[in-house]
Design brief:
- By secondary structure, the chain is mainly beta.
- Helices cover about 15% and strands about 35% of the residues.
- The chain contains 18 helices and 66 strands.
- Strands 23, 24, 25, 26, 27, 28, 29, 30, 31, 32, 33, 34 and 42 form a 13-stranded mixed beta sheet that branches. Strands 1, 11, 12, 13, 16, 17, 18, 19, 20 and 21 form a 10-stranded mixed beta sheet that branches.
- The protein is globular, with a radius of gyration of 43 Å.
- About 20% of the residues have low confidence.
């Protein structure tokens, strides 16, 4: 057994923290006000104190007081209640220099009291030393910092503050004259020249660790906060990291009370009854009232000196006999309770189950135990309520408590029984309650020399102890508790109603439920969870007397009260799951639930699909990194100049400078046309691992500008000038040029130029502002591809702000963009652990951003005038209105035939129906010759039709004159003709009715054109008029689900404000039923109303061009680019019919004209084929593009996501406010080498009017090949390539050709339906997990045939020998060494030498041959270095098959 007395200073660390961090709770009125204002979530803040400037103070410093230092004290203050709360924070002592005190302190706190009355009071204090070593504090001034305003969005000013210092002391804030005062400046006097500079910021990262700190506590990053990982920089709260929590099991718990359990409880009851007798009112029932013990409970929680890390668990203890103890089995080491050993009277309290706790290895973390009794007291007449003799009330009282720090000392408590001394009396405790202690028990105590620190009371001889076992969860599996649904619901409701509960701010911590224990008395949660200060009683009925609930409150007595202490910010209300079993048993409900099983509870889990893609983190740099010689080399190629309409060179802008933007200047420009030019000039190669120095040899680019179709360029050759002299450290850019038929570069036309014309003929009405905003705030994404292998080299983005002319005739800018790619790799690390085995390797996948090159682009904008004819046409176009008004019908039916062609002319909007009628009409003319009059033939029939009819008549007459043998056939033929004629007559009548209905509907149909794009909502209002003199109830029918009627008044008001429609909004206008065909609206006689309609489509066409360049090499050699088809929504016609009593009253026909959308971001993902892709994309800070927030400034609370492909699952979840938010994707797999493309629309507005961003996502599905290999050694793998329908000339390419080879390496013929086996040879040089790519390309058509994703699992080799060498730094000379190698074979062998760092180590001979048993000296040449350091180089001795024979490790120290 491990006794706490045997461990010195067990809880000193925790006790010091606990006594030092006593808090003053906020006012209950303020807490209640915050809850009423829906401030239930705590927010984290950072307060940076920079310096104090003090020109003069009212109290001067004498010459002898040179040792005076200064200290700043910070406290939270409630202005409404004139109440200081929290804990005063004190800075370190600072000296004054040049009338300035440099503080450089950073404070952190979190609070849910986001009210204007919450202030921060800062006081400057001077500290003068005394002869006894202490300091005399003297106030030098104070100031007040206002954190919040009346607005709910948070900080009044998030940024720098300069606060004036005032005369006096902060105690002046408690003066009665300052109560309910908002402006204190009228009462205070400013100290001249004295002010404090500070910075206030939101600190969302603090919310991750707020369960370690109570609310309203000012702390610095240097404070000791157990559970928090120490930061090397010193400030642990700047980017807080939590210690790893380990699960532990607490079992075989017993509590011993002295002198015995019976005597202890008997004395306790006597004292409580005497206390009730002293506080009762006289009555006839006084002699019958006694207080009895109803339940014995134990609270167990983990405390870090500041607060409980989680809500303490509550379990029920049972009286046990003296012989009932836990015993340990020699085999299973599991504790059991021997129920066979009994005694006549119980001697201790025990727990039959076990508890699960989560602890971190920190010396100041303590397990806190609190013994609490539930008492039942009678209710008398003084309660003013009717009560029976069995009416009783319950209240709680704490009797003992204790703490134990498992990691304070290196004590071996594992596998041992732990005995802890409990204490009582009026002392501060973590639960903040008064603890029972009597004079009788104190007399039995005598001094003891040693007691458990933090747990012992004044010396004990007869000690109250608690005994238990603690073990880690993997060693012993604890039983999982079950909590009833009612318990969870009441617990959640109690958390919401109790703002002082510690669960506020700890909701994101996984709560450990109390373990299952024997069923206790059937008290409700409102009874047992009530504190003894205000013992609330609930109303219910029960069959048993001890299950009665009581309709009154006890009078609080000195013994039955639990007063909240100043160091506890809030009372802990615990979850008592097992006490609800008796109350939930109603009829057969409980047995049914036992048969079916309890439903699983969903934990607050956030899925993370690693690695997470973060938008905007890898932004390509556009700053020029080329030298002047490189720029001269580029422009010596003779690229076409960008000139204005007068032939003058365009003005050059610097993209790195901040360019102003004036919308009015752009709109007032006389040159309203814009020709936007993109010139792709050159590409700079950057050496990379796995590829050669001449990679890539040619490239092509893909991009999409504004809402123009996507562009794919032709292949562009990278030209190098061998005559140019340059230093080895500098890589010259390669000029881009088109490719001739012989695959050579065409130097006559360097570069690639793509231009777009944007003028009034292209832009829709009111679209110019959107286009200018696109140029000002967006970047254009560009993908750069290898023209031979069709592998993605990387991506970049060019800023478009330099294309704003701002009144100039033409502008141009030169961009040098970094081409970035993301490489996912994992380094191999060896772990040695007794739990994991003798040796195991683990991989942590990390994403690395690599720069694969630099793309040189010149952008320009040339202003041009608009065609006057088109300009006049534009001015004549009607202004786009959101109100659709039906035209008044002034003319009647002009007469004429109801033939299909006339219907076609009248109803041009329904062309499909007209064509169907036309076809049926022609068929009718062929089969009904006798029904056509000569007049109708002359009007509608052609000569060929008349000839056909005459032929048919002759045939009928010939058949009628046939002989007797054909009589039956003729009869059947005649009957068939009669039936056909009858059918044609009915069809003819039906067509006439349809024609009349179509003409009548055309008279009441109003057409309107909608220019819609993907994701954007189009709002219109249709003016519906009741033409009758009686009221009508109109039902609205819509034949397309993408068009809907806005029935929500708030949504209607929002779209009116968005479109600036000046029509009124009517509340409760529509009557909506679930099974109705559409909403209904009531119209008075001759009344006109506005029907709001919204069209929004999230689906579009996903067809895309094949992967590869746009054009093959031609003889002309001119640079070309192909504009692919746009992925836009489908054009359609939608009819909205307004019917009254089943008859149409009006028809609105909306013709949807699709327009392309803007793509803000492009992603390319690679995934194994036929596997579901799960990916998380982190959202950047978003804003509402519409500018209408409906009074809600927190747009992040309304983020929603839609996908253009209904088969793809996308969602986003609202996490803790201030934390980053992710979009989760689940994309179904496809076969290789299919590319799936779709769009994601991000909405930051509640009504999803306009997407804030549209992302274009490409998913490349590749055939996965898993390869396990060793560094430096070649591994072979077979790949299967299947032929298609045609003969192809195929060549295979690898993304890392120096590490991966494919055999055959050249071009080979792939016959149709053939199976070609490819030999893959992998020889990596770096251990870990990596991903490589192999493409099979049709070299004639430049199309992708097959693609493979190589998943390499690379292991470290077995080292034979290790060496160490020193190389001097800065000498300019390397170092030569040699290693002796002996051939272990008896025959002559040839060996190859390889190194994983060829740039640092060169061999004298890469290949050597030695006889059997002979030795050979391997010559090593180490390259010089200019900086000190060290590197480990592996030397591989391979055979001719590249299998490793020996591996040497050479550690090179550069010094």
């Amino acid at each position: 057994m491990v006794k706490t007395e045997e461990i010195s200073s067990v809880a000193d660390g925790w006790k010091e923290l606990f006594e030092r961090n006593r808090l003053v709770p906020p006012s209950s009125q303020t807490v209640r006000l915050a809850v009423e204002n829906h401030f239930t979530q705590s927010r984290g803040f950072q307060l940076t104190l920079n310096r104090i400037t003090a020109a003069s103070f009212p109290q001067g410093i004498s010459v002898g007081e040179q040792d005076v230092t200064y200290q700043l004290r910070v406290t939270l203050f409630d202005r409404n209640n004139q109440h200081f709360f929290g804990k005063t924070w004190r800075s370190s002592s600072k000296k004054m220099k040049n009338n300035k005190i440099f503080l450089n302190e950073v404070l952190y706190f979190h609070t849910s009291l986001l009210l204007p009355s919450t202030l921060v009071v800062l006081e400057l204090v001077s500290l003068s030393p005394k002869p006894d070593g202490s300091h005399q504090a003297l106030g030098r001034g104070f100031t007040v910092l206002e954190l919040f305003t009346n607005r709910p969005e948070g900080l009044a000013a998030d940024g720098d503050r300069r606060l004036n210092l005032y005369h006096g002391s902060p105690r002046g804030l408690l003066h009665p004259l300052l109560k309910d005062t908002v402006d204190y400046s009228a009462f205070w006097k400013v100290i001249d020249g004295a002010h404090l500079d500070c910075v206030v910021k939101n600190h969302p990262s603090l919310l991750h660790v707020k369960h370690l700190l109570p609310e309203n506590v000012l702390v610095s990053g240097m404070d000791n906060i157990p559970g928090l990982t120490a930061s090397p920089a010193g400030d642990a709260l700047l980017r807080p990291q939590l210690l790893k929590m380990m699960p532990f099991t607490l079992s075989r718990l017993t509590v011993s009370l002295e002198p015995s359990l019976e005597k202890f409880e008997s004395l306790l009851q006597q004292l409580i009854n005497a206390d009730c007798h002293n506080t009762k009112q006289p009555g006839s029932e006084d002699t019958q009232r006694t207080v009895v013990i109803q339940e014995r409970r134990l609270h167990v929680g983990v405390h870090n000196g500041w607060c409980f890390l989680d809500k303490p668990q509550v379990v029920v203890l049972e009286p046990l006999a003296s012989g009932v103890r836990g015993r340990v089995s020699s085999v299973s080491k599991k504790s059991t309770l021997d129920s066979s050993v009994t005694s006549s009277l119980p001697q201790m309290l025990g727990l039959r189950s076990s508890l699960e706790l989560k602890l971190a290895n920190h010396q100041a973390l303590a397990i806190v135990f609190q013994l609490e009794y539930v008492f039942s007291a009678p209710i008398g007449r003084e309660t003013m309520l009717s009560a029976t003799s069995t009416s009783r009330a319950a209240f709680l009282q704490c009797l003992r408590w204790g703490t134990w720090c498992p990691f304070q000392e290196a004590a071996d408590w594992k596998g041992e029984e732990i005995q802890l001394v409990l204490q009582g009396g009026a002392k501060p405790n973590p639960h903040g309650v008064m603890v029972y202690s009597t004079e009788v028990s104190a007399k039995t105590q005598s001094p003891a020399p040693i007691s458990a620190p933090g747990t012992a009371q004044e010396g004990l001889e007869a000690k109250d102890t608690i005994t238990f076992w603690l073990s880690s969860s993997p060693e012993r599996k604890a039983s999982s508790p079950k909590a009833s649904s009612r318990t969870k619901q009441e617990d959640v409701s109690r958390e919401r109603n109790s703002p002082s509960s510690p669960s506020q701010g700890q909701k994101h911590i996984l709560q450990t439920s109390p373990p299952s224990s024997p069923q206790g008395p059937g008290l409700s949660l409102s009874q047992l969870a009530a504190t003894s200060r205000y013992p609330t009683i609930s109303h219910s009925s029960s069959a048993l007397p001890w299950q009665q609930s009581f309709p009154s409150l006890l009078r609080p007595s000195p013994l039955a009260s639990a007063h909240q202490l100043s160091h506890v910010g809030c009372l802990a209300v615990s979850n008592i799951a097992h006490l609800e079993m008796a109350l939930q048993h109603e009829g057969d409900e409980l047995p049914l639930m036992q048969d079916e099983g309890d439903p699983l509870q969903e934990l607050p889990f956030t899925p993370v699909h690693a690695p997470v893609i973060t938008v905007g983190t890898n932004v390509p740099s556009s700053r020029s990194a080329s030298s002047r010689s490189s720029l001269a080399h580029i422009f010596s190629a003779g690229f076409p100049e960008i000139v204005d309409c007068n032939g003058q060179p365009a003005e050059v802008l610097d993209p790195t400078e901040l360019l102003p933007f004036d919308l009015q200047r752009e709109e007032a420009d006389l040159l309203q046309g814009n020709v936007l030019v993109f010139q792709f000039l050159a590409f700079t190669r950057i050496p990379a691992a796995g590829v050669g120095p001449d990679w890539p040899e040619n490239i092509y680019v893909t991009f999409q500008f504004y809402r123009f179709p996507p562009v794919t360029s032709q292949q562009l050759k990278l030209l190098t000038n061998d005559k140019t002299q340059y230093r080895a450290s500098e890589t010259l850019p390669c000029v881009l040029t088109s490719i001739n038929k012989d695959r050579t570069g065409n130097t006559g036309s360097p570069g690639l130029q793509v231009q777009f014309r944007v003028d009034d003929s292209f832009l829709r009405p009111e679209e110019k502002g959107c286009f200018l905003d696109y140029l000002n705030n967006h970047t254009m994404h560009i993908d750069i591809w290898d023209g031979d292998s069709l592998l993605l080299i990387g991506s970049t983005a060019v800023g478009l702000k330099c294309m704003l002319r701002q009144g100039k005739s033409a502008v141009q800018a030169l961009h040098e963009l970094e081409v970035l790619t993301t490489d996912y790799a994992a380094e191999e690390t060896l772990l040695t652990s007794s739990d994991l085995g003798p040796r195991s390797a683990s991989y942590s996948v990390t994403a690395h951003t690599l720069v694969r090159g630099r793309l040189h682009i010149r952008t320009g904008n040339i202003g041009c005038s608009v065609d006057p004819c088109w300009k006049r046409t534009v001015h004549k176009m009607p202004f786009y209105s959101h109100i659709i008004t039906p035209c008044e019908v002034t003319s009647g039916f002009r007469g004429g035939s109801l033939s299909p062609r006339n219907i076609l002319q009248l109803n041009t909007g329904n062309s499909a129906q007209a064509r169907r009628l036309d076809t049926d009409g022609d068929r009718m003319l062929l089969f009904r010759p006798d029904a056509i009059t000569p007049k109708e033939r002359n009007l509608h029939d052609t000569d060929s039709e008349r000839r056909k009819l005459d032929c048919m008549t002759a045939v009928h007459q010939r058949e009628a004159r046939e002989g007797d043998k054909a009589t039956k056939v003729t009869v059947h033929t005649t009957e068939a003709h009669l039936a056909r004629e009858f059918h044609q007559e009915s069809s003819d009548d039906r067509r006439k009715a349809e024609g009349i209905a179509n003409m009548l509907s055309q008279a009441i149909t109003t057409q309107h054109c909608l220019y819609a794009s993907l994701g954007s909502a189009k709002y219109v209002e249709f003016v519906l008029k009741n033409p009758f003199n009686v009221p009508q109830t109109v039902t609205i029918y819509i034949d397309d689900p993408e068009l809907s009627v806005i029935t929500n008044t708030e949504e209607w008001r929002y779209f009116k404000a968005l479109t600036k429609t000046p029509t009124p909004v009517e509340e409760n206008m529509f009557h909506v039923e679930e099974d109705a065909a559409g909403p209904r609206v009531y119209l008075r006689p001759k009344e006109s109303i506005h029907i709001p309609l919204k069209y929004q489509s999230f689906l579009c066409d996903h067809t895309m061009a094949l992967q590869g360049p746009s054009y093959l090499p031609t003889g002309r050699g001119s640079p070309m680019a192909k504009k692919n088809l746009s992925n836009i929504i489908t054009a359609k016609t939608i009819k909205v019919t307004f019917k009254a009593d089943g008859k149409p009253m009006a028809i609105c026909q909306l013709n949807v004209e699709p327009t392309p959308h803007i793509v803000n971001q492009t992603f390319r993902l690679y995934h194994p084929e036929l596997c579901i892709l799960k990916k998380a994309i982190r959202l950047p800070p978003c804003h509402d593009p519409t500018g209408c927030s409906s009074g809600n400034t927190d747009s992040m609370t309304h983020i929603s996501v839609r996908c253009s492909d209904p088969n793809i699952v996308c969602q986003t979840r609202m996490l803790v406010p201030g934390d980053p938010q992710d979009v989760y994707l689940k994309v179904p797999g496809s076969s290789s080498p299919h590319i799936k493309m779709f769009f994601l629309m991000i909405f930051t507005n509640k009504w999803m009017a306009v997407p804030s961003q549209i992302w274009q996502i490409y998913v490349h599905f590749l055939e996965r090949v898993d390869v396990s290999c060793v560094t430096g050694q070649r591994s072979c793998q077979s790949l299967i390539l299947r032929g298609k329908q045609a003969v192809r000339k195929v060549k295979c390419f690898s993304s890392h050709p120096t590490e991966t080879e494919v055999d055959p390496a050249g071009v080979f013929v792939l016959p149709p339906a053939a199976v070609q086996e490819l030999q893959l040879k992998v020889q990596p040089w770096r251990a870990g997990s990596r991903f490589l790519y192999v493409n099979a390309v049709d070299v004639e058509q430049q199309q992708l045939v097959a693609a493979w994703l190589l998943c390499l699992n690379i292991h470290c080799p077995v080292l034979s020998k290790a060496f160490e060498v020193c190389v001097p730094v800065g000498s300019g000379r390397g170092s030569s060494r040699k290693i002796t190698y002996t051939n272990p074979y008896t025959s002559s062998r040839t060996f190859l030498l390889r190194s994983d760092h060829p740039d640092l180590l060169q061999f004298k001979e890469d290949k050597f041959q030695i006889g059997g048993g002979e030795s050979y000296s391997i010559g090593l040449r180490f390259a010089p270095s200019q900086s000190p350091g060290s590197a480990e180089i592996l030397v591989y001795v391979n055979n001719l098959e590249e299998k490793t024979e020996e591996t040497f490790c050479v550690k090179v120290n550069y010094s």
